[in-house]
Design a protein that fits this description.
Helix content of chain A: 25-40%
Number of helices of chain B: 3
Helix content of chain B: 40-55%
Radius of gyration of chain B: 13 Å
Largest sheet of chain A: 9 strands, mixed
Number of helices of chain A: 14
Number of domains of chain B: 1
Radius of gyration of chain A: 22 Å
CATH architecture of chain B: Orthogonal Bundle
Number of strands of chain B: 5
Oligomer: heterodimer
CATH superfamily of chain B: Coenzyme PQQ synthesis protein D (PqqD)
Strand order of the largest sheet of chain B: 2-3-4
Number of domains of chain A: 2
Strand order of the largest sheet of chain A: 7-6-5-4-3-2-1-8-9
Shape of chain B: globular
Distance between the termini of chain B: 9 Å
Strand content of chain A: 5-15%
CATH superfamily of the largest domain in chain A: Aldolase class I
Largest interface: A-B, 27 and 22 residues
Order of helices and strands of chain A: EHEHEHEHHEHEHHHEEEHHHHH
CATH architecture of the largest domain in chain A: Alpha-Beta Barrel
Chain lengths: 382, 94
């Protein structure tokens, strides 16, 4: 046995720079396998500039990212896109994620999934499916998704998911054009055998920001939605878990966006760029690392974009002296950028933000005017 | 399932909900849809007993013996804990 040399500390061994302790490891990773999608929902959370197919990570590259993610501490993998089923190697990707030790959640519109393919995903170890819902009938759903026949196809996919017994969450994105159908939406989730429904009122990032005037609900719709959810929680207790994400513009305090920047989750885009959140690229001056050139752990621990808004030290007043500082972390950086023009500002949703009046003016103007046409999500047309 | 759990219910973890040992944090966790719950030793001990065959009374008796605790106290704790999990559909009963 050889002695292991021990480092010695001399009295003048002062570090040249201050080192910050490593952040807690992430719990969840969003893997955007592709930006390709047969649907063109006007609220897509993908960026306006979509990644081309030839830039996408390969199966083997994703498998390596998954191994690094597990070593870093990630427990849950959300497999998304675009439409992840647009990847012909989806089954192999799910198998690689399970092999690495991740809980695998497939976030899909259902388009591109067949009974056979779902059986293969089941065999590969897929843990859970989150199926998006654009509306409760073909009229609304195909209008919002911009894809004729999409609703009928989705209902067939839901039946196949139920046949296999894969746990299902319905993810209903709600806005001005379908909030009136909220009670039927919840009923449909139960009827399809879903264990959970996420009622996600559109948050205005990505394409949704571009389509905000067309999607903005009225205050009456929002108040009614809260009543419908409260009633449904009683009616479906123990049968259907209901998660409700209210529209944050109508709230008094901001959402704890990403549970705090760089605290819980990370997002890998189709070409391997690692983002602290979906919309992070809308903040000018941030630079992002790529898993093709930098280990994931180094990106999480030391990446400039992850450290840009980690913690709360960067926050201005009124956040610094606010009792909610460590509850909502000042809200969403991308929203602060979009509305206040400053990513370090208090989220303008907050009643204490000096920019709240701007948000109220937006709500008043947009919800009182007839909705304009959608700008559908399209590749290569930001 | 509606209403509170009873000692005769036979709980189990439904498909898509599983126990996992988190090697990085060295903690047992319960993984489920949009959920990763860090478990304390008691929570882990309860969930590890669920098999869909034995009822809550039997599970509570086994835990009471292992931890040398009064079975009434354990059973009440188990019903409350599993009831909260069932409301989120992380636990189901046969």
């Amino acid at each position: 046995m050889t002695a292991i040399p021990q480092p010695t500390l001399s009295p003048d061994a002062t570090p040249a720079r201050l080192v910050r302790p490593p952040p807690a490891p992430p719990l969840a990773m969003l893997a955007e396998l592709t930006h390709r999608c047969p649907l063109s929902c006007p609220y897509c959370s993908n960026p306006l500039e979509l990644a081309a197919r030839d830039s996408e990570l390969t199966t083997a590259e994703w498998a390596e990212v998954f191994r690094q993610a597990v070593a870093l501490g990630v427990l849950q993998l959300h497999i998304s896109g675009g439409e992840p089923a647009s990847r012909s190697d989806l089954v192999a990707i799910v198998a690689a994620a399970r092999e690495a030790g991740l809980y695998t959640n497939l976030i899909t519109s259902g388009i591109g999934l067949t009974g056979v393919r779902l059986d293969e995903l089941d065999a590969a170890g897929l843990d859970h499916v989150q199926l998006s819902l654009q509306g409760v009938n073909a009229g609304v759903a195909d209008f919002v998704g911009g894809y004729r026949g999409g609703f009928d196809r989705k209902m067939q996919v839901a039946a196949e998911i139920a046949r296999i017994g894969l746990p299902l969450t319905l993810n209903a994105v709600m806005h001005r054009h379908n909030l009136g159908d909220l009670a039927q939406t919840i009923a449909l989730a139960h009827q399809l055998g879903a264990r959970r429904i996420e009622i996600a009122c559109v948050q205005f990032q990505g394409w949704a920001l571009k389509n905000r005037a067309a999607l903005q609900p009225t205050r009456e719709q929002v108040d009614e939605a809260k009543r419908v959810v409260a009633q449904a929680r009683r009616d479906y207790a123990g049968k259907l878990a209901i998660d409700f994400v209210p529209p944050d513009y109508f709230a008094d305090f901001p959402k704890a966006c990403m549970n705090g920047w760089g605290s819980t989750g990370l997002n890998v885009t189709p070409d391997g760029t690692v983002l602290p959140c979906h919309a992070a690229a809308t903040i000018p001056g941030l630079s992002f690392d790529n898993v093709r050139t930098t280990p994931l752990a180094r990106i999480w621990n030391e990446g400039a974009a992850f450290n840009a808004f980690r913690g709360t030290d960067f926050l201005p007043e009124p956040c610094q002296s606010c009792e909610r500082r460590d509850i909502d972390y000042g809200g969403c950086r991308c929203q602060a950028m979009a509305i206040a023009g400053d990513a370090r500002a208090t989220d303008p949703v907050c009643r204490r933000s000096p920019h709240r009046a701007r948000l109220d003016a937006i709500i008043a103007a947009e919800s009182s005017a007839p909705p304009p046409d959608f700008v559908y999500r399209r590749m290569g047309r930001g | 399932m509606t209403g509170p759990l009873t000692p005769r219910d036979r709980p189990f973890l439904p498909r898509g909900v599983r126990l996992h040992h988190d090697r990085v944090r060295d903690l047992p966790v319960l993984l489920g849809p949009e959920t990763a719950l860090m478990l304390d030793p008691v929570g882990h001990a309860v969930l590890a007993e669920l098999d869909g065959a034995r009822d809550i009374a039997a599970i509570s008796a086994a835990l009471a013996e292992r931890y040398a605790a009064p079975v009434e106290v354990i059973e009440a704790d188990v019903i409350e804990f599993l009831g909260n999990m069932a409301a989120q559909r992380l636990v189901e009963v046969a």
